[in-house]
Structures are given as structure tokens and as C-alpha cells.
């Protein structure tokens, strides 16, 4: 007996759209896995060079003691059990040394994170501007994530040469209140607008594995995809369940859920950098490769995220070499 494969639904238009419904996005997300990955790969290759995988290195320039209550975050002062003490802002020179080391290891972008609700104008903000100028002076892309921004702060960051501002929506609007109570979804959207108006690239994504449903994941992607233009980068994080945070007991995310999120983000935002972000350490090489096939084209590169561990640099350099995207300047033992 010959088996006739079921006909595929009509392929998703590769055109750039900003009018998605949550139901449409959820239907894409829930396609049979092979159809989803195949379609995402098609969209990816129609809009991007598949050999272009961005390496972004992270540094926590100001750690701990944050007044916000984000349930996932070990840096929140509300989660005393997470044991992260409040530190001062790092000196500019020390940050630039880290950036130079990241560049030498093959990073394209240097991302600096501060555990602030919002930056205060004054010497600390001026120091962040100097960090941005310094990173740009090294020939790297510069990204910062400092919490909420006023229009004039966004303008000053733009003048310093900032490439991109990271400010995540984290999840869909209906689930957001289960995770954060100290600022609203609208607050987040307002900062994203200030960043966009200043001409800085928008880096905005979220986290899977916090107890949200697939509908919440689709709803977050809808908000992002219906922004015109789309965010330039979309980080897809898997929750790193840190002891002492309210989400410490969450079960690890199924790697296939990450593949589905990367693929769906790719289909609805064809040209964005879809970054396979926190939680990559829990993935096998094969699961990461599936994410790349499904359109992920950026990773956090370097052995630390902000406060938790990331994949080893050599393992990443090997993985990238093995998929045909070698890291220049990194010498590894010959492949078997
Ligand atoms: N305070 C700033 C803010 O929240 O915008 C910047 C730093 S904050 C740590 C940046 C992002 O990291 C958060 O929006 C969240 O999406 C992600 N993040 C923080 N803790 C995480 C965790 N435990 N697992 C996965 N992602 C996390
Ligand atoms: C993003 O979406 N993920 C990064 C970056 N943007 C700033 C942060 C991940 C943090 C993971 C937990 C930690 O290391 O503290
Ligand atoms: Fe503060 Fe950002 Fe952590 Fe929320 S995610 S507690 S705003 S550092």
C-alpha cells in the first residue's frame, strides 16, 4: 500500500505583515513539527543568509538589588532567597576590558545589563554613555538594558552610538500580571516607543517556561509582530529557574517548545534576529541545531549570561564550526 502524505496547508506568505491575530500565530505554532520547521526554514532563507549567526556577549554592569519584582529574576530585591547582593555600577574601564575580551573571542555585539527599574540622570548614566561609546570604538555593536527610559535618555543613548536597546515584554499581556506587579505592560511598550523614536534598534522578546500557556506565547509574538517595523532582535529565553526566586520550582522547558517559538518568531518576523537566549545550556547540540534550522540566527556567546552560567565558549565555537559557521580566530582541535 502506498501512503499519500496529507496535503500541506498553503504556505505562509513571506511578506512582512503587521496584522497578525493571536489565533493565526497559534495555528502556525501548533503546526506538525516538521511542517513548522520546514516553513520557518523557507522564510528564513528567503530573507536572511543562513550562515549569518550573530554572537552577542553579555555583561552585568550593575548587579542585584533591583526594586522590580519580576518573578523569574535573581536580581530582584524582593526575592531575598536568591542571595544576590546589590553591587555598584562597574567602572567604565573594567567594562571595556570585558568588551575587548569578548571581541577577541569572536563576539559581534556586546550587551550590558543593569538591575535598575530605570536609570537616574547623573554620573551613572554618563558612565553608561561612556561604555556605549567605548564599545562602539572597539568596532562592536553595543546594546544596553537598563529598565524604563525617558525620551531624552533614549536620545542621549542614540547620540552615544547605541546600536540596540533590550527591553523584553517577557510574555503575553494576559499572563504578564502573574509575573510582574511593579510595572505594567504599557510601561514596557512606552519605553519601546521611546527607543524606536530615538532611532535605536529595538531588542525585545520574552521567556518561555514560566507557567504560561501556548496562547500567551502566541500573544507575545503577536504584540511584537504587529509593531511596525518589527523589532530588529527578538530574544527567546527559556526560564533559568534560579533558587530563591518564586519560579524556582518550574519544570524545565521541553526543547521542542523552544524550536516552536524560534520557528514561529521567524515566520511572523521574517527579518528579525531571533536570538536563542537564556536556557541554551540545557539544550543538546541537536536541539540547538534544530533551532538554527528553524530560523534562530543569534546566540548569547560567552560563559556567563548576566548572573548565571551560559554554554562554554569552546563548545559553542565547535558547534558553530560543525554547522559551517566557524568563529574567526578561534582554533579548535580538528573535527573527527
Ligand atoms: N532590568 C532591566 C530589565 O528588566 O529590562 C534589564 C535586565 S533584565 C535581567 C533583562 C531580561 O533578562 C529580562 O527582561 C528577562 O526577559 C531576562 N531574564 C532575567 N532573568 C531571567 C531568567 N532567570 N531566565 C530567563 N530570562 C531571564
Ligand atoms: C535577554 O533577553 N536575555 C538576557 C539579556 N536579554 C539581557 C538576560 C538573561 C538573563 C538570565 C539570567 C541571569 O543570568 O541572570
Ligand atoms: Fe530588575 Fe530587570 Fe530583574 Fe526585573 S528583570 S528584577 S527589572 S533586573
Automatic annotation (TrEMBL):
<feature type="binding site">
    <location>
        <position position="73"/>
    </location>
    <ligand>
        <name>[4Fe-4S] cluster</name>
    </ligand>
</feature>
<dbReference type="GO" id="GO:0004076">
    <property type="term" value="F:biotin synthase activity"/>
</dbReference>
<dbReference type="InterPro" id="IPR058240">
    <property type="entry name" value="rSAM_sf"/>
</dbReference>
<dbReference type="InterPro" id="IPR013785">
    <property type="entry name" value="Aldolase_TIM"/>
</dbReference>
<dbReference type="InterPro" id="IPR006638">
    <property type="entry name" value="Elp3/MiaA/NifB-like_rSAM"/>
</dbReference>
<keyword id="KW-0411">Iron-sulfur</keyword>
<keyword id="KW-0808">Transferase</keyword>
<dbReference type="InterPro" id="IPR002684">
    <property type="entry name" value="Biotin_synth/BioAB"/>
</dbReference>
<dbReference type="GO" id="GO:0009102">
    <property type="term" value="P:biotin biosynthetic process"/>
</dbReference>
<dbReference type="GO" id="GO:0051537">
    <property type="term" value="F:2 iron, 2 sulfur cluster binding"/>
</dbReference>
<comment type="similarity">
    <text>Belongs to the radical SAM superfamily. Biotin synthase family.</text>
</comment>
<keyword id="KW-0004">4Fe-4S</keyword>
<dbReference type="Pfam" id="PF06968">
    <property type="entry name" value="BATS"/>
</dbReference>
<keyword id="KW-0001">2Fe-2S</keyword>
<keyword id="KW-0479">Metal-binding</keyword>
<feature type="binding site">
    <location>
        <position position="111"/>
    </location>
    <ligand>
        <name>[2Fe-2S] cluster</name>
    </ligand>
</feature>
<feature type="binding site">
    <location>
        <position position="66"/>
    </location>
    <ligand>
        <name>[4Fe-4S] cluster</name>
    </ligand>
</feature>
<dbReference type="InterPro" id="IPR024177">
    <property type="entry name" value="Biotin_synthase"/>
</dbReference>
<comment type="subunit">
    <text>Homodimer.</text>
</comment>
<dbReference type="Pfam" id="PF04055">
    <property type="entry name" value="Radical_SAM"/>
</dbReference>
<feature type="binding site">
    <location>
        <position position="275"/>
    </location>
    <ligand>
        <name>[2Fe-2S] cluster</name>
    </ligand>
</feature>
<comment type="pathway">
    <text>Cofactor biosynthesis; biotin biosynthesis; biotin from 7,8-diaminononanoate: step 2/2.</text>
</comment>
<feature type="binding site">
    <location>
        <position position="203"/>
    </location>
    <ligand>
        <name>[2Fe-2S] cluster</name>
    </ligand>
</feature>
<feature type="binding site">
    <location>
        <position position="70"/>
    </location>
    <ligand>
        <name>[4Fe-4S] cluster</name>
    </ligand>
</feature>
<keyword id="KW-0408">Iron</keyword>
<dbReference type="InterPro" id="IPR007197">
    <property type="entry name" value="rSAM"/>
</dbReference>
<dbReference type="InterPro" id="IPR010722">
    <property type="entry name" value="BATS_dom"/>
</dbReference>
<keyword id="KW-0093">Biotin biosynthesis</keyword>
<feature type="domain" description="Radical SAM core">
    <location>
        <begin position="51"/>
        <end position="280"/>
    </location>
</feature>
<protein>
    <recommendedName>
        <fullName>Biotin synthase</fullName>
        <ecNumber>2.8.1.6</ecNumber>
    </recommendedName>
</protein>
<feature type="binding site">
    <location>
        <position position="143"/>
    </location>
    <ligand>
        <name>[2Fe-2S] cluster</name>
    </ligand>
</feature>
<dbReference type="GO" id="GO:0005506">
    <property type="term" value="F:iron ion binding"/>
</dbReference>
<comment type="function">
    <text>Catalyzes the conversion of dethiobiotin (DTB) to biotin by the insertion of a sulfur atom into dethiobiotin via a radical-based mechanism.</text>
</comment>
<dbReference type="GO" id="GO:0051539">
    <property type="term" value="F:4 iron, 4 sulfur cluster binding"/>
</dbReference>
<keyword id="KW-0949">S-adenosyl-L-methionine</keyword>
Amino acid at each position: 500500500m502506498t501512503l499519500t502524505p496529507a496535503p500541506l496547508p498553503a504556505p505562509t506568505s513571506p511578506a512582512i505583515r503587521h496584522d497578525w491575530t493571536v489565533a493565526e500565530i497559534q495555528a502556525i505554532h501548533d503546526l506538525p513539527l516538521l511542517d513548522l520547521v520546514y516553513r520557518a526554514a523557507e522564510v528564513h532563507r528567503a530573507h536572511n543568509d543562513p550562515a549569518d549567526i550573530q554572537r552577542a556577549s553579555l555583561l552585568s554592569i550593575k548587579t542585584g538589588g533591583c526594586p522590580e519584582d519580576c518573578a523569574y529574576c535573581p536580581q530582584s530585591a524582593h526575592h531575598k532567597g536568591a542571595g544576590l547582593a546589590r553591587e555598584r555600577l562597574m567602572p567604565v574601564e573594567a567594562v571595556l576590558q570585558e568588551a575587548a575580551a569578548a571581541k577577541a573571542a569572536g563576539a559581534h555585539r556586546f550587551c550590558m545589563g543593569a538591575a535598575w527599574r530605570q536609570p537616574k540622570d547623573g554620573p551613572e548614566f554618563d558612565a553608561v554613555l561612556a561604555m556605549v561609546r567605548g564599545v562602539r570604538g572597539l568596532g562592536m555593536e553595543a546594546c544596553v538594558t537598563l529598565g524604563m527610559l525617558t525620551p531624552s535618555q533614549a536620545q542621549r543613548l542614540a547620540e552615544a552610538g547605541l546600536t540596540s536597546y533590550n527591553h523584553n515584554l517577557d510574555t503575553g499581556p494576559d499572563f504578564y500580571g502573574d509575573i510582574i506587579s511593579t510595572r505594567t505592560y504599557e510601561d514596557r511598550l512606552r519605553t519601546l516607543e521611546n527607543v524606536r523614536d530615538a532611532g535605536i534598534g529595538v531588542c525585545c522578546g520574552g521567556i518561555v517556561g514560566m507557567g504560561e500557556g501556548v496562547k500567551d506565547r502566541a500573544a507575545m509574538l503577536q504584540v511584537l509582530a504587529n509593531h511596525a517595523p518589527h523589532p530588529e532582535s527578538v530574544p527567546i529565553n527559556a526560564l533559568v529557574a534560579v533558587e530563591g526566586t518564586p519560579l524556582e520550582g518550574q519544570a524545565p522547558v521541553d526543547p521542542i517548545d523552544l524550536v516552536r517559538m524560534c520557528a514561529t518568531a521567524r515566520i511572523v518576523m521574517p527579518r528579525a534576529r531571533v536570538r536563542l537566549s537564556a536556557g541554551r545550556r540545557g539544550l543538546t547540540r541537536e536541539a540547538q541545531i534544530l533551532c538554527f534550522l528553524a530560523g534562530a540566527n543569534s546566540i548569547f556567546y560567552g560563559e556567563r549570561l548576566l548572573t548565571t552560567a551560559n554554554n562554554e565558549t569552546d563548545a559553542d565555537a565547535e558547534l558553530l564550526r560543525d554547522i559551517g559557521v566557524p568563529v574567526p580566530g578561534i582554533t579548535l582541535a580538528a573535527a573527527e
